[in-house]
Amino acid sequence: MKATALTRAYRRRAPGEPRAIGYVYILPALIVYAAFLLYPFGQSVWLSSQHWDGLTVATPAGFDNYRALFSDASLRAPFLHALLLLVFYAALPVAIGLLLAALMSRARIRGMTFFRTVLFLPQVLALIVVGVAWRSILAPDGLLNDALRAVGLGGLARPWLGDYTWALPAVGVVGTWVGTGLCMVLFLAGVQRIPRELYEAARMDGAGPLREFLTVTLPGLRPQIAVALTLTIVAGLRNFDLIYITTSGGPGNATSVPAYEVYHRAFETNQVGSAAAVGVALTVLIFVLTVTVSRLVEGRRA
Amino acid sequence: MTTRLERTVTYGILALFTVIALTPVIGILSTAFGSQNSLDTGFSLPKGGLHWSNFADAWSRGHFGTYLGNSVLVTAVVVAATTVLAVLAAYAFGVMRFPGSTVLFHLFVIGLTLPQEALVVPLYFDLRYAELTDSYWALILPQTAQSLAFGVFWMRTYFRGSARSVIEAARIDGANTWTTLWRVLVPMGRPAISTMVVITFMWTWNEFLMALVMVSDEAHRTVPLGLAFFQGQHSSEAALLAAASVLIALPVVVVYVALQRRFIEGMLGGAVKE
């Protein structure tokens, strides 16, 4: 009896019919995926437990490489930078996107396709190209400093990417530029799916723009907010290209992030075990943050 | 309902963000067409006409002809391999039932959030051991594996949504699983497949870290890598640098403008869990 109930439950969950041939269809993809993604990840976990310079014989390190993530300031800093950058890479784009969506919820927009295409454009450009473009904007004689001088704020002008205090926020602004369009497009689409009647009902109840936003727009956009945060957080933590092309982690290590540290340690300073540990820790961080986001924002429906 | 003023403000803000989104793009364009001797970093109309020769110079002096060729080859192979493999696997995950299918599927989905940084180190040593670094394989194989995470996830959603009745009708007509897939479901699924193709195309074309690590010789450089090295050597030649950037971004931008709906769908769909 129990078996049939189980089969029935199973049938309800999975579609289709029993077909052992399914394995054959999956096999080619699985081989490539396992050989070039799953297996290397396993190797990374193993490497992270070793002291290895990439040349001589590796020696077991236990948890040394992970302990160093907390005790070694040059390893702690990149993680702190990455978390700080998430303000620029994730929080700001979502906040700006929400602001815009709140405005859009009150009017019908003509030319949506045009705005959507242009706002989303930064997402499709190679980050290397984005980096080259912004490097010239942030350069000592670049557009930003020119503009500051033009409005009489020349005293604020500085080599943004070479400044110990300002390099990290400057790289952050580039991330904001990349991520904001994505969030806007997502939220604009979401707002248009919220039934008009909800807004009319809210207005009937005498809700002002703020109450309308809090009671209708914000709850209505929950799923989109979760997606936007997931996408921007993952992209922000994975960020290597932008750092490499704009600052190479400098000045000093003021803009180093875990992604850059992996590259730097493994391929420039021969600390392969340590690099692997940074990579694995980054993976864990991404998992923890994305799961937290979907729990907090989406609710426990999943 | 909404006042004229509010409407104006809304369009004003949209216009403002449009300008912000376009400023760096226009800057690159104006620098790319500017004079090579100009010390301006752009944002002024090029003096003395458009300098198309910058592109020719970037092409020859920066070796971008070779790099574009490499990028085209690598991207074409990755996109083709990902498409075929993902369609096959997702078909099984979407319409068949067998023990372990859920676990296997989740194994693929993990790849959506697994950062390259956690793979690149062992991959480099593995491929070097196999004497495959500085070859197209080193660029193609890891990239295909990573694209499969999205491809399998995306195509499975399509196969799950495709009408049961169509599949059953095909079976009654005597089609086996293979013919059902290629004769019925794949032609019907062209929109879903083209979304996967453009997303994989963009990711592969723009990919940097793997290429940086796997390739040290000039003969196998892809365009983003070429641009990074070009900047290292010619950082003072803004016009050439910008022209090279335009050459790299152009293919993706053209496809994006033509198929923007497919792009946005795919990039957002990749993050939507069931």
TrEMBL record, chain A:
PROSITE patterns: ABC_TM1. Residues 79-293 form the ABC transmembrane type-1 domain. It comes from the Bacteria. The chain crosses the membrane at residues 20-42, 79-102, 114-134, 166-189, 275-297. It is a multi-pass membrane protein. The keyword Amino-acid biosynthesis does not apply. Keywords: Cell membrane, Membrane, Transmembrane, Transmembrane helix, Transport. It is found in: Cell membrane. GO terms for cellular component: plasma membrane. InterPro entries: MetI-like, MetI-like_sf, UgpAE/MalFG_permease. GO terms for biological process: transmembrane transport. Its main location: membrane. Belongs to the binding-protein-dependent transport system permease family. This is Sugar ABC transporter permease. It comes from Streptomyces antimycoticus.
UniProtKB/TrEMBL annotation, chain B:
InterPro entries: MetI-like, MetI-like_sf. Keywords: Cell membrane, Membrane, Transmembrane, Transmembrane helix, Transport. Coiled coil: none annotated. GO terms for biological process: transmembrane transport. It is found in: Cell membrane. Residues 68-259 form the ABC transmembrane type-1 domain. The chain crosses the membrane at residues 12-33, 67-91, 103-124, 136-155, 192-215, 238-259. It comes from the Bacteria. SUPFAM superfamilies: MetI-like. One of its GO terms (cellular component) is plasma membrane. It is a multi-pass membrane protein. It holds the Pfam family BPD_transp_1. Belongs to the binding-protein-dependent transport system permease family. This is Sugar ABC transporter permease.
